[in-house]
Amino acid sequence: MPVRFSFGIRRRLTAAILVTALIPVLVAVWLAQTTVRQTAARFFVPEVGAHLDRSLELYQELARAVKAEMRNEAAAIAADWPLRRAAATRERAAVERELRRSFRGHPALVSLSVRSDEGLMAEVNRGRPLDLRTENRFEVVRSLAEPGGHGVRSAPEAPPQAAEPGAPPSDDRPDAPPVEDDEPAAGPELVAVFAADKARFDELAEASQFVENYRRVEGRRVADERGYVLAFAALLGLTILLAVGVGSFVARDVARRVVELAHATQRVAAGDLSVRVPASSDDELGVLAREFNRMLTEVETSRARIEYLQRISAWQEMARRLAHEIKNPLTPIQLAVQDIHRRYEGQNPEFQRLLDMTLEVVEDEVGTLRRLVSEFSDFARLPQAELEPADVSEFMRELSERPLLADDERRSDHVPPSAGPNVEFELPKEPLCAAIDRQMLRRVVINLVRNAAQALAEIKRSGRVVVSLSRQGPTLYLDVDDDGPGIPAQLREAIFDPYVTTKTDGTGLGLAIVKKIVVEHHGTIAAEQSALGGARLRVRLPALS
Length: 545
Fold this sequence. Notes:
By secondary structure, this protein is an alpha+beta fold. The chain has 3 domains: 47-209, no CATH class; 273-381, Helix Hairpins, CATH 1.10.287; 386-542, Histidine kinase-like ATPase, C-terminal domain (Heat Shock Protein 90, 2-Layer Sandwich), CATH 3.30.565. Helix content is 55%, strand content 15%. It has 10 helices and 13 strands. The chain has helices at residues 2-43, 46-78, 81-89, 92-103, 198-269, 284-343, 349-380, 392-400, 438-458, 510-520; strands at 109-116, 119-125, 135-143, 152-153, 179-180, 189-197, 388-391, 422-426, 433-436, 464-472, 475-482, 524-529, 535-542. The strands form 4 sheets. Strands 8-10-11-13-12 form a 5-stranded mixed β-sheet. The chain has a 4-stranded antiparallel β-sheet with strand order 2-1-6-3.
């Protein structure tokens, strides 16, 4: 069953983490796809493409118009009759003069020249070369053989360039390769070189490239959208896998700790209160484990307290019966011996000494038995503690002002008042509150001090007894230290049981009474090694906040 429980909770936790991760992932994919589409729609509006195409057509029309104007100017110059006649006569001076005359009326010209089969006949120019940074070279060739003759439009001096996709037609480019307008005519030819504004044609090329790129990107838009969405989905899928992995790891740890709690609960149900659950973390399960352990500690303490009180009750009942059985014959025995001693009137000194010694022994032993019976009776009649809130510091100060060992009812025969130990009190000034029975707790202090005094009397020393009170957290500590022989380690647990004692004439009831009173105060008592070198009897009481 525990294994099934472990796997079941692991599966449920992993499934919960997976569903928790999957829902926002699906929403994120949908939002990403919608965002990509909306973003692309803002940039790729059909009207924008149409306007770009019209703008490109305007640029192309402008370029064609510029070139057409240059062709027309060249045709007009070639149609000039004086120039044709001079070219036909091949008079160099006349041709040059006519070229100069025609050159002045056309500011866009860079140069005019006439060439024939023999070579260059004449040439005029504007006096400065073509500025390739700001001007484009446009050359028009016209035949001077007859009016309206046709020629060819030749290429620029620079090497021809391949036309790029989306570029304007070759007829609109000033640097296009040669294109024949018609079949060339024989005879002299007019070569007119014009300077076109380079910026206009560069703008045309840029606009053409921009439109081409726009169309290319627009064509890839659907594929890009799908790619972006798939990439985003893959990324989120990887996130899900990581989430599932982490969730499985967390679920395994959570399941393990829950199973430990379940197993501990089963052991507690079987009666084992010594089990504890590891509580190393600070999360909710760690808090639960600590509270579970604290509950077990309290239950174990309560059970031990109940068992101890039950055991003490049995000892009290036995002490009551022993006191009754022992007390009844003591008086007749003592009276009988006293009567024999009183009635003897003989003159035998030996017998008289025997009677005197017998009377003394009987009276001493009867006194010892009476004291024992008295202690048994006190133990048997020990009342139940009635707890009330009180300032323990003030209570201990009141006790410190009284001669604790002068109480004849509890004073040891080995410790006369004049030779008792030096009892010192170390008490805090601030109030320390707890629920106590003042009379019962007074008896605890007296018995502990008396026990320390008797231990010192065993080694024939007056010594020191220090009574101190302190608080640490929720616990009050009442310590009684002495510099006597101490308590052997093997007896520190059993010293509080009835009739267990280390003294030659002790009954073992004093510390048993102390422990019963302390237990009824919901506290504990333990025997430890004192810093003074002797024994320390430490009483722990729950403090009131």
